[in-house]
Structure prediction request, 386 residues.
Amino acid sequence: MRWQALKLANLKIENPLNFTIGILGGGQLAKMDAQEAKKLSFNIITYDPDPHCPASLITGNITGSFNDVEKLKVFNDKVDIVSYELEHINIDTVRQAIPEDKIYPSLNVLEIIQDKLKQKEFFSKKGLPVPFFRKVENIDEIKEILPVVQKARFGGYDGKGVVVLKSEEDLKKAIKAPSYIEELIDIEREIAVMVVRNASKDVRVYPVVDMVFSEDGNLLDYLVAPSDISEDLTKKAQDIAVAAVEALDGVGVFGVEMFLDKKGRILINEVAPRPHNSGHYTIEACETSQFEQHVRVLTNLPLGSAKQVIPAATLNILGEKDAFGEPIYQGLSDVMKIDGVYVHIYGKRKVKPLRKMGHITVIDFDRNRLVEKVHYIKKTLKVLSK
Prediction:
């Protein structure tokens, strides 16, 4: 089967062996997508500049630049439907190679998400709660309204492209690229919700999770699911997350990151149009993982239950500050002796400081014991280099 202007909502697959899912990007998210696709015997092909990308360990990979129209056309000819595991792709190039109605979430959604200022403007116009924000034309404009958070409009991820500016002295570290500023929120906690929406507009929403961020690099350190916020705040956060995805008319899996401030406001931070770090716990802790849901959306199979069956925590496995080169996973055996611990090593051939090399999910019915295990693992497992 190859795409012939067939609408996804009408797609009926009789034999998974005859259907191929294409993923732009071959990192860990594509690898975990592929693991779920293989369970149902769907074919999967990734497209990535790195011939040794994590997904290539278990699936076919076409190696090429995201700016190579001809290579992308070869990829398009081999797959029946396309999704992506990263936002930073050249939309104009992709449009030349792949029919727009073959890509989910749509390129229109991706255009909004890629520009974080446009994303904020979009949600604000839709009446969804976002922090106060303003476009920055000149760094000097910021002096009058300190303290603020400055964010790059394009290309930021895992804490990159974000700086907190509290004083004029801090302006030395201001971002020298197209950016915008947000109010410096008095954060109670950072939370996230995974939302799945298919072509028939069916929706599944996962529990709210609490996220704890590393001071080094401002990327996710670990999360606990479900959050212990009140039922009212839980429902409010889930409703906001679903409303954001519906506003985008999104089809796919979405990670919606939010702030809960000390005044009780829940504000959208940003939305990722793909499986997300904050949803990795769903593999072991929920009836249907975010990755299986992604496969179900792309193949028009019914969505699964998003019910969480056991409390969980997920922590990232990060490269040590001085690690460069071939990775060494110190303490792995000690960690794997612990009950309820699930280790995911992504298969990246080189470690760098703070690079995500994998993640670990811990499950336990006792929330305190869960967090104790997380802190033990953080002290025990280190990614060094030869």
Notes: The domain at 132-183 is CATH 3.30.1490.20 (Dna Ligase; domain 1). The chain has ten helices and 19 strands.
